[in-house]
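Hi Q.,

Before the meeting this afternoon, I wanted you to have the S-adenosylmethionine prediction in hand. No need to reply - just skim if you have a minute. The sequence and ligand are here:
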Amino acid sequence: MFVRHGIPGETVRVVVTSESKSFLRGDAVEVLEASPDRVPPPCEYARPGRCGGCDFQHVALDRQRLLKASLVEEQLRRLAGVSLDVLVEPAPGDVDGLRWRTRVQFAVDAHGRAGLHKHRSHELEPVDFCLIATSEVEEVGAERLPWPGAASVEVAAAGAQRVVSVNGRVQDLPDVEAGVVVNGRPRRVPHGLVHSVLGRSFEVAAGGFWQVHPGAALTLASAVLDGLAPGPEDTAVDLYAGVGLFASLLGERVRSVLAVEADARACADAARNTHDQPNVRIRTAAVDAALVSRLPRPDLVVLDPPRAGAGLEVSRALVGLAPARIAYVACDPASFARDLRVFLDAGWTMPSLRAFDLFPMTEHVELVAVLTPPGE
Ligand SMILES: C[S@@+](CC[C@H](N)C(=O)[O-])C[C@H]1O[C@@H](n2cnc3c(N)ncnc32)[C@H](O)[C@@H]1O
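Predicted structure with the ligand bound:
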């Protein structure tokens, strides 16, 4: 039985919310014996049956990280056959786990009211604020404005810059202090955001992917660079490159980089973000086993796939490619552990695995693993 709103070790009264053949899901609705790590949820919407965004508002931050560590350990044991003690490191500057989301996507109901989805549901919880959003995102006030005809509203911020992307059959737009993009078409500047990491600037078009926690890009970039230890004679491949975060930073340190990304708009941003780096090439393509097996052998690979992971076929193709080091950046411990098994079965080792709490108050955790082939 999977129980939300509880903490392992507690005695709680549970209401079953869904049943399948092999397990039940439920909400802890009454706490009979509380864990010493239970805290009052700072957000009034983080309650059984209400907003599904946060899983751990009722858990002390240190215990949240221990829970995430045990989740990663369990997936590694179950799916990769690896026994490892995992330490989940806090994001830089994180004090209370709140006000870190630089991008929030709200769904909009038939009355034009913005809200967040309930847990595992298409139903909306109308909210007036979101405590994990940064104050720059919250100052737009999207939750308290009318969005008639819209299906979704995304608010993203980089420092004081903000952009709102609206999708749907949008009618009248409320006045917001931000750039506005409607169904991908710019309405008011800025149409994108500019982030800065380790001395380089990264433009991201509205609605495009950028790491969400304000400290995430630097944390992950530093972990990837530490793990790969790039040298000036190395060649590198950045798979699932987004707007070129890792490709550009590697480009400063190695002989050449090939970045591969499927989304054309992200590739256009990546090309702009690396325009002064003739040694960085951007290729618009889907990463698959055929593409990987046709690559010239690089020394270093960054692998930062979406939640589904790189998959067995791409992982096998990477084993065949045999770079000296791979940095696998993973936001889903289960798909990562499944892929890791492919490398371990082929005799590879994992000299380092770091875990970061880049999504406080939620069950999510980000991993950076270094993988090396036999003999390296
Ligand atoms: C987790 S993001 C990582 C982006 C980038 N590394 C960063 O940190 O900003 C995953 C990226 O993979 C891209 N993507 C998803 N499926 C893909 C595929 N099959 N081939 C190439 N890129 C893909 C997405 O468009 C997205 O930019």
